[in-house]
């Protein structure tokens, strides 16, 4: 698992506002998008970012500036967590799924029988 100096959590109302904040944050600071969660049908969005302490702090300040331009103040919370513990990162950073290895198929020792699918299919329409 990748280690981050800091992670940032931005919680905002409305999916579109969350995407706008993520766009501005990504353009302003060298942070990595870690994950997001949508609640209430996209009316509450949590965005997690990671990077150096200075970059994450700059990103959170950028999200607050985007919020100031909005009339209804959609930003609910924006925090920087420095030196996050490994256990916190397990909840934030999506883990790669482990694929089960396929076992080799055993050879079929039973005699093959003719199935219905082996019969030739007749053409239904010869009107060409």
TrEMBL record:
Coiled coil, from the record: none
Keyword vocabulary terms for this entry: Bacterial microcompartment
Region listing for Disordered, in residue ranges: 92-128
Origin: domain of life: Bacteria
UniProt main location, coarse: other
GO CC annotations on file: bacterial microcompartment
PANTHER family referenced in this protein's UniProt entry, alphabetically: BACTERIAL MICROCOMPARTMENT SHELL PROTEIN PDUJ, PROPANEDIOL UTILIZATION PROTEIN PDUA
Protein's recorded name: Carboxysome shell and ethanolamine utilization microcompartment protein CcmL/EutN
Organism: Gracilibacillus ureilyticus
